[in-house]
Amino acid sequence: xxxxxxxxxxxxxxxxxxxxxxxxxxxxxxxxxxxxxxxxxxxxxxxxxxxxxxxxxxxxxxxxxxxxxxxxxxxxxxxxxxxxxxxxxxxxxxxxxxxxxxxxxxxxxxxxxxxxxxxxxxxxxxxxxxxxxxxxxxxxxxxxxxxxxxxxxxxxxxxxxxxxxxxxxxxxxxxxxxxxxxxxxxxxxxxxxxxxxxxxxxxxxxxxxxxxxxxxxxxxxxxxxxxxxxxxxxxxxxxxxxxxxxxxxxxxxxxxxxxxxxxxxxxxxxxxxxxxxxxxxxxxxxxxxxxxxxxxxxxxxxxxxxxxxxxxxxxxxxxxxxxxxxxxxxxxxxxxxxxxxxxxxxxxxxxxxxxxxxxxxxxxxxxxxxxxxxxxxxxxxxxxxxxxxxxxxxxxxxxxxxxxxxxxxxxxxxxxxxxxxxxxxxxxxxxxxxxxxxxxxxxxxxxxxxxxxxxxxxxxxxxxxxxxxxxxxxxxxxxxxxxxxxxxxxxxxxxxxxxxxxxxxxxxx
Length: 509
Fold this sequence. Notes:
- It comes from Streptomyces aurantiogriseus.
- The chain is of the alpha/beta class.
- The protein is built from 17 helices and 13 strands.
- A nine-stranded mixed beta sheet has the order 1-2-3-5-4-7-8-12-13, sandwiched between helices. A two-stranded antiparallel ribbon has the order 6-11.
């Protein structure tokens, strides 16, 4: 699975998605929650440009569901039909997370490697790009302005105010390049879109598989349309009920826990490039050298590495987890000779292939800052939150993902389309299966436990005792539990747990 903060590079070019629908779909899903939608026109499916074995299309929907007859956008959709039509159960909507990952790309390219043969045989895998993402009128921002982003670690009130001013300028720039969908990129709007898609497919009930930020889509769909669910499996769950301090501190604790999992693995694994050394001391020393401007990017020697950039590399490695590669990377940085600073520092200079583009797709904050009422008002509040973050994760220096997310909302308007709230899923909703790693680097296990406490009558929590962010394909236990649930709606027995994968268990991961 891709990281929560992944920036999309545009999965499908504009214009390749098949034609528009009539406006019946928008009207169908605009009705009050709990009422069945009327039938709407079918999607004009055509072979997908990147894989003709899948079908692609689009669905015209309102930008603002409060004004269903107003401006509209095209929701990009992809479908991979059940391989065994005689055993078909129904549609399985999928969302791989982000915010900003592409459901179309998942259905077209990744589903066949993600799901078991049984799931692919029995379900139509249906993915869509949430509004503002990929082929669904993506949020775009000026490359030149993105390149001028100030530090995410202001040191005083003046730097904090400069960060806030920059965020406001970037927000207006993105709105200008993206159109009105920017102001309606929240998950509640995505939930309305998903139910319109259900109606357009002629399905009375859906099955849903959501990962990471995709679990928030699933949770809020269940709140609003619980009677339209046949089954729902959620992995690496997001807790949308917590405030700023708990959000930052628990995320930092998750990153720190994953760091210690990495250290224990290295201590027990001879193939680790740091085996036999004090891994924590080496790591802290590398970050200290980065603070002093002594480390260069191995792939771009003219670029000085910041400690933040290094922790971000580690954080991404924890997702798989790819401890072997991380150990090699850290050992290489530690072995760098101390040389004079390069002629220029380029910690913010772009090194990707988009430097010649005028705009880039950047949906993350358009979604996140409308889903979370987390606004740091001044430097004093920021400093207090950061201090708590550092106490929770002294070696990882907080969670680089969440720190960037929260800091990116500094200076935004107070109004939030979809603020946090306690999850309230109707008792008539079928039981929802939740899986979550005990050592998830991004979403702390307490998030899943808290959601389960709030919805004990409608959710079942199956812990995976290993490390990593994705859960479904970790072991036979995790895969079989999801498959049995989606196909037969068999729920794991109370108290069930899935042991860590053998390699992690043997090496202390």
